[in-house]
Amino acid sequence: MANFVDARSYTSSFSINQLGYVVGGAAVTRWDTNDCYQYDPLTNKWKNLSPIGYRPIERGFAFVNNGRAYSSSGTSSASNHELYEVYGNNIK
């Protein structure tokens, strides 16, 4: 598997349609993030997707229900507690 873009902790992840996703987390080289990456096992590459929401997402959770994926934060530097639809509307 290809290396991830940086070292980070407290990410959320899910898989859908044979692709893997990593959302947010605390990157070692910077503060909490709201970025989203897609991993394609066929190409063995990570792709940077649109950020999730407008606040950092750390120590959160992600789940898939009826073909749609959702992510939310548990705690973060911005006290973010919003639920975002990750797959279905903004991940293509």
Fold blueprint:
Elements: E1 8-9, E2 12-16, E3 19-27, E4 32-40, E5 45-49, E6 61-65, E7 68-72, E8 83-87
Antiparallel strand pairs: 1-3, 2-3, 3-4, 4-5, 6-7, 7-8
Outline of the structure:
This protein has 92 residues and is an all-beta fold. It has one domain (8-87).
Word description of this protein:
This protein is mostly beta strands. The chain has one domain (8-87). 0% of the residues lie in helices and 49% in strands. The chain has strands at 8-9, 12-16, 19-27, 32-40, 45-49, 61-65, 68-72, 83-87. Strands 1, 2, 3, 4 and 5 form a five-stranded antiparallel beta sheet that branches. The chain has a three-stranded antiparallel beta sheet with strand order 6-7-8, with no helix packed on it. The chain is globular. The chain starts with 7 loop residues before the first strand and ends in a 5-residue tail after the last strand. The model has no long low-confidence stretch (mean pLDDT 81).
